[in-house]
Amino acid sequence: MLKGFRDFVMRGDVITVAVGLVVALAFSNLVKAFTDSVINPLVAAVQPGTKFGLGWQLGDAGNKATFVDMGAFISAIIYFIVFMAVVYFLIVLPYRHIQKRRGVTVFGEEPATKACPACMSDIPEAAKKCKYCASDQPAAA
């Protein structure tokens, strides 16, 4: 039962979708922080005025609706970078290593290929013929 679960989880498409969802989650946090901390105060500002720090007060002093909070946005960027580094080092690298031992290339460049001269299917550049065309050749006497 556990072997079947492991095989299901280790399928390439499941891991790829999981990593995509994690990236989307982290990116959505970044976008939310940008809109909440930068865009919303710009829209809510009714009178010009600035107060420097990690943000600017665009309206009445102390009014959170008109405060451009760059500190929160910078922390969201840092969160995104740290989060993606954790995903890369704890999920992508071990998965790439396991799949490499299985002979499968994931999250990287595909190896260079060329066309088989006999059947025109894709083969590695170093190969002369694909395994099917090579097996059609009669044995040398």
From TrEMBL:
Keyword Endoplasmic reticulum: no
Presence of the UniProt keyword rRNA processing in the record: no
Location relative to the cell: Membrane
Record field: transmembrane: 72-93
InterPro entries: MSC/AndL, MscL_channel
Topology relative to the membrane: Multi-pass membrane protein
MF (Gene Ontology): mechanosensitive monoatomic ion channel activity
Any one annotated GO CC term: membrane
Protein's name in the database: Mechanosensitive ion channel protein MscL
Keyword annotations: Membrane, Transmembrane, Transmembrane helix
